[in-house]
Specification:
By secondary structure, this protein is α/β, with parallel strands linked by helices. It has three domains: 142 residues, NadA-like (Rossmann fold, 3-Layer(aba) Sandwich); 116 residues, NadA-like (Rossmann fold), CATH 3.40.50.10800; 80 residues, Rossmann fold (3-Layer(aba) Sandwich). Helix content is 40%, strand content 14%. It has a five-stranded mixed beta sheet with strand order 2-1-3-4-14, sandwiched between helices. It has a five-stranded parallel beta sheet with strand order 6-5-7-9-8, with helices on both faces. A four-stranded parallel beta sheet has the order 11-10-12-13, with helices on both faces. Helix 5 links the parallel strand 3 and strand 4. The protein binds iron/sulfur cluster (SF4).
């Protein structure tokens, strides 16, 4: 397995002064999507809208801007397509004439886009500090160590790794190399069905909640079939017997945003809004998903709201930018955030208008900035895992 980190290759570093001049200072070293500072971040200088438009116009077909659903409105308005990370990576691959793919999302998404696009296409992440706390919870070294633990317990041969899209290129490569597949929140059940045809146990990375929810809620397993592997404890904090008895070995990772919702959030909103439908993402905790009325991916959430009758009431447990956008798109329905304490993904929100303008203007001047490039070996194994997902029945 490669242990090389897929680090971005920088042709030009964003100078703090350049970002300051664009209206916002940034510290590229500070990252982690764990804060919940209140309302959505304030919008950037509206003058920047004109600059972004001009730079994008100058680049024409050479640039293709991807906008993840959790991005701010000020950024989404410049996206050529919007969607979840996998859809966006596929959209980029379908536009080979675009030399530059500007990914308004987080680091692992830009890596996936680089893996799925041609070598001639260059993927740019406007702010390199836009990481994902969940993806950071599983490093290549930790996962290699876990595999050694499974081998020592005599079960590695029976285990098939299944990794969520929200993982680094290194983890996707590990998965490909060990006969496993990638999954999204839409196809996790199909991926697990496939994996249990290949082996007797699954190592699910890095989101414990998606793994547990899919196994228990969608596949009828019991909670006792699942064990939690803690990479910070010797042998994952598990005995050999626990590992041998488990069907699902869940990595101890979670989303800092979806992990905030609790059973209290659900009970509280039902009390405040009689007749409300609770709709949550499967990255939420098991007790939240169990108490909800509907569970599904971001695309599912959007489609469910589109199909909902006028006058219906909805409490949604996912990222705040998406909830706001969905609420604005359906003024005939009552749409609220599931929790009273608002929370957005702070690393996603690092991509703001100043960073987007800086990236677009640099590209328009012929300077390639913040390129995300996955090394060849990592890319080939990660692609293998992604191709297995594409071939799922
Ligand atoms: S919402 Fe959660 S999983 Fe998505 S980028 Fe933010 S921290 Fe990562």
């Amino acid at each position: 397995m490669t242990t090389a980190q897929a680090r971005p290759e920088l042709d030009v570093q964003p100078s703090p002064l350049a970002l300051l001049l664009l209206g916002r200072e940034a510290d590229p070293r500070s990252e982690r999507g764990v804060e919940c500072p209140g309302d959505l971040p304030s919008p950037s200088d509206p003058d920047l809208v004109e600059r972004a438009r001009a730079a994008k116009e100058k680049l024409g077909d050479k640039v293709f801007v991807l906008g993840h659903h959790y991005q701010r409105d000020e950024v989404i308005q410049f996206a050529d397509v919007t969607g979840d990370s996998f859809k966006l990576a596929k959209d980029a691959a379908a536009r080979p004439e675009a030399e530059y793919i500007v990914f308004c999302g987080v680091h692992f998404m830009a890596e996936s886009a680089d893996i799925l696009t041609s070598d001639d296409q260059k993927v740019v992440l406007p702010d390199l500090a836009a990481g994902c706390s969940m993806a950071d919870m599983a490093t290549a070294e930790q996962v290699a160590e876990c595999w050694d633990v499974l081998a020592e317990a005599g079960i590695a041969e029976q285990v098939v790794p299944v990794s969520y899209m929200n993982s680094s290129a290194d983890i996707k490569a590990f998965t490909g190399k060990h006969g496993g597949t990638i999954c999204t929140s839409s196809n996790a059940k199909r991926a697990l069905d496939w994996a249990f045809e290949q082996g007797e146990k699954v190592l699910f990375l890095p989101d414990q909640h998606l793994g547990r929810n899919t196994a228990v809620r969608d596949m009828g397993m019991s909670l006792d079939d699942c064990v939690l592997y803690n990479p910070h404890k010797p042998n994952g904090g598990l005995t050999v017997e626990q590992l041998r008895n488990a069907k699902m070995i869940l990595w101890r990772g979670h989303c800092s945003v979806h992990g905030r919702f609790s059973l209290d959030s659900v009970n509280d909103v039902r009390e405040r809004i009689p007749g409300v439908n609770v709709l949550v993402h499967p990255e939420c905790k098991h007790e939240v998903v169990t108490a909800a009325d509907y569970v599904g991916s971001t695309e599912y959430i959007i489609k469910t709201l589109e199909a909902a009758p006028a006058g219906s009431k909805w409490a949604i447990g996912t990222e705040l930018n998406l909830v706001r956008r969905v609420a604005n798109a359906h003024p005939d329905k009552e749409v609220v955030f599931l929790d009273k304490t608002v929370c957005f993904c702070s690393t996603m929100n690092r991509i703001d208008l100043p960073h987007l303008v800086w990236a677009l203007e640099s590209l328009a001047e012929g300077k390639l900035v913040n390129r995300i490039q996955v090394d060849t070996e990592t890319e080939s194994f990660a692609k293998l895992a992604l191709e297995r997902m594409l071939a799922l029945p």
